[in-house]
Amino acid sequence: MKTSKVAESFLACRRVAVTGVSRDSANHGSNVVYCRLRERGYEVFAINPNAETVEGDRSYARLEDVPGGIDLVVIGTRPERAEETMKECIALGMTRVWMHRAFGGGSVDRSAVDLGRAHGITVIDGGCPCMFAPTDDGAHRFLRRVCMLTGAVPRQVPEAVVGG
């Protein structure tokens, strides 16, 4: 399915956890995503096991600590942490995970992507929620075009393959 359609369905979710949100927010991609979602009216949860607060809000050590559940997880950590996060998502029965990436490898880890899809999770393996409506802006739309050309934003998102 086209990434824009999958992103649209992901961004229709209102309770979003963002991993990798830093106490030091200066130019940190996860913090940008977190703040943008919060500004646009999403109920957003910072996941950082080393912080009690992030961006003035309570932070949670693990996804399972968020009260009331989560509809979407945005992984914004280093890629070597992505598989552990994906295992948390599987344990919680998550169906949507977005791995942040613009330039370089971002948070995308191929084994985590494959693991999630094998367990029925739809995974966007690249790009950023800020690149798609309704959370986008002109600069991020431009970045989306560039990143689609470089492959950092996938043009298609495969269906999850349960048991595959």
Question: How many individual helices?
Answer: 5
What is the spatial order of strands in the main beta sheet?
3-4-2-1-5-6-7
Mean pLDDT: 92
Structural class: alpha/beta
Report low-confidence residues grouped into runs of 5 or more: none
Q: Which architecture would the CATH scheme give at its second level? A: 3-Layer(aba) Sandwich
- How many angstroms does the end-to-end distance come to? 18 Å
User: Helicity, in percent?
Assistant: 25-40%
Question: Describe it for me?
Answer:
By secondary structure, the chain is α/β, with parallel strands linked by helices. The chain has a single domain (3-150), classed as 3-Layer(aba) Sandwich (Rossmann fold), CATH 3.40.50.720. 32% of the residues lie in helices and 17% in strands. A seven-stranded mixed beta sheet has the order 3-4-2-1-5-6-7, sandwiched between helices. α3 (82-92) links the parallel β5 (72-75) and β6. The protein is globular, with a radius of gyration of 14 Å.
